[in-house]
Each structure stands twice: as C-alpha cells, then as structure tokens.
Amino acid sequence: MGQRYERIEGRIRTFIEQQPVFFTATAPLDGEGHVNLSPKGRSGSLVVLDGQTLAYLDFGGSGAETIAHLREEGNGRITLMWCAFSGPPKVLRVHGSGEAIFRDDPRWPELIGHFAAADGPGARAVVVVRARRISDACGFAVPFMDYREERTQHAEHFGRKSDEEFAAYCAKKEHVGVSLDGLPALPLPLPQRSA
Asked: Most buried in the list 6, 21, 86, 112, measured by CB within 10 Å?
C-alpha cells in the first residue's frame, strides 16, 4: 500500500541516495505538446538539499525538453521517479516544481559545490526541484536487475572538450536552444560559469 511523506528524510532519503538511476518527467502547458521522460544517472549527480528540495546536474547530450518545460511561463511542473531494481519493491515519486539554474546565475557556485562527488564535465545547468507531493507505491511489477557499473563515455567525451568547445557543441544541437514545441530551452550561447 502506497504512502505519502511530508519530507525527504530517513529511509526515503536513503532510498533516493542508493538508486543509481532515476527518471524525470515534464510536459508543456499546451496539451498538444510533447511529454518528456528522461533517464538520469552518473554517480553523484543528484543531491538532497533539504527535506523538501532536491537538485540534479543537467548535462549536455541530446535535447533540452526538461529545461524548456521548467522555463515556460506558468509551468515548472516536474516529477522525479525512482524504482527499486534490487531489494524490497518500491517506486518513489516526487511531484514538484523545478527551476533550471544556469552557469552564469549567482547561485551556481554554491549549488555546484554540492556535486563534488560527480564527474561533472558537460554540466550546463543545475535543476532544483521543490517537492509538493512525495509518495511511494509497491513496485511489485518492477523487475530485479543488477547494477554493474557507471558508463564512462559521457564524462570522458565532455571531459575532452574545453568550455568553448562545449558551448559550440550545445549551440549546434537541434533541440537545445528551442524545444520540440518551439519553447525557449537552454540559453544560447551557453552561459559562462559564474565565478
């Protein structure tokens, strides 16, 4: 039987911090727009800031749908989900509002400091999520799967790029500056890191 929680603490926080992968879901306000669902990984790229707030690194790679939906005026809706692929069955969701903090934002230096354990090349934003609803479900239908190791290709690829090369990479991607539905996404040119 599912439960609701007031805060991300205790065993809920421990569960989140133990999972090697989580998923994000967002959508534009226009009902005809594209719903986005993305897997997220890379060890150390998600942190619990307090009992109501999480943050994760948004990396370069494909599009920027999540950022576009969070930036859309009057939107900002986001759901994070974790599944237990080992141990007791559980699915945990945090429904909330999100904000993308870009590299030139004065809050960037403090926020990026929370990710010292992450291999951070390719970070283009920190997404901060404020929980509105925290709940779990049984997860009985989620299969057992074994975690082997992190994939290193992403960090290695972006670790070889200078900041200028990374900015150029972001600028040439089709759906990074503008979403699939024409919403503003990642600011281009890519903001420089604030001091």
From this structure: 112
Q: How many CB atoms sit inside 10 A of residue 182's CB?
A: 12
Is residue 85 within 8 A of residue 173, CB to CB? The reply is no
How far apart are alpha carbons 123 and 55 in whole angstroms?
A: 13
Mind listing the pLDDT tens digit for each residue in 109-149? 999 999 988 877 889 999 999 999 999 999 999 999 999 99
Residue with tokens 């040439």: 172
Residue type for position 147: Y
Please tell me the distance from the alpha carbon of residue 72 to that of residue 10, in angstroms, as a whole number. Answer: 33
Model-wide pTM > 0.85:
yes
Number of C-beta neighbours around residue 101 at 10 A: 18
Indicate if the pLDDT at residue 184 is higher than 90: yes
Task: Tell me how far the alpha carbon of residue 111 is from its chain's centroid.
Answer: 14
Structure tokens at 3: 């439960």
The count of C-alpha atoms lying within 13 angstroms of the C-alpha of 66, restricted to the half-sphere facing its C-beta, is 28
Q: What does the CA dihedral 40, 147, 91, 115 come to, rounded to 10 degrees?
A: -40
Detail the DSSP E strand segments found in the chain: 4-5, 22-26, 36-40, 46-50, 53-59, 77-83, 91-102, 123-137
Q: Give the integer Cα–Cα distance in Å for 42 and 150.
A: 7
